[in-house]
Specification:
This protein is α/β, with parallel strands linked by helices. It contains 8 helices and 7 strands. Helix 1 packs across helix 8. InterPro entries: NAD(P)-bd_dom_sf, Sc_DH/Rdtase_CS, SDR_fam. Belongs to the short-chain dehydrogenases/reductases (SDR) family.
Amino acid sequence: MSKGTYRFSGKVAVVAGGSSGTGRATAIAFAQSGAHVVILDRDAVGGARTLEMIRRIDGLADFISCDVADFAMVKTAFSQIEMAFGRLDYAFNNTLIDGVWSSPTSCATEAFKDIINTNLYGVLHCMKSEIPLMLKNGGGAIVNCVSAMGPVGAVGMPAYVASKHAVMGLTKAVAAEFSGKGIRANCICPGSIDAPMLESLLTAPPVNRIERMEEIAECVLWLCSDSASFVSGHIMADDGGVVAL
């Protein structure tokens, strides 16, 4: 994505899970397009690195230490955002953990809950704070990261797959309730990317290469842009054809 593809100057974008990987690439892309980016993550070291990368390109960004599984922390973070900016235009909820491998019959209940708390409740916590702030300024756009494990299943990851299926349903529920009030909500489902977790699960997609982080960021920004003004409740499989196999 070239600098300035989208015009987000004067806008505020939250990236939950922006300290590395897809979240970092998307935070940088928002900044390149003129948005003031607020990164939420419990990884302060990674967050500082993302801030450094954004400021190196003269972008605007802040970091707030936040564990999205803790609703009190999320509420505090968004109170800070409201006090600082008085608005929120875009949100990319990219919070996830994969947990340990197991079968549905041997998965420990507490381990299952840990994954659900971050992958599902983390997204819920963020949207519960994002939506009211967006409504105060006439609307906005939310993109939730699901991965290719949302539309399909996978052996050995029952909690992860269940959490991603649930996020898709939650996103559709938000789209159904708030699209008429100016808030669009969509999901992206990256497939075979340069990440250890998915490398172990997925073979090369039909396009026969690994997806670049910047390509995922491009999907997020397009869904947030006016070019996607009539797109809400959509599950975008930006996976090179993985779910088509």
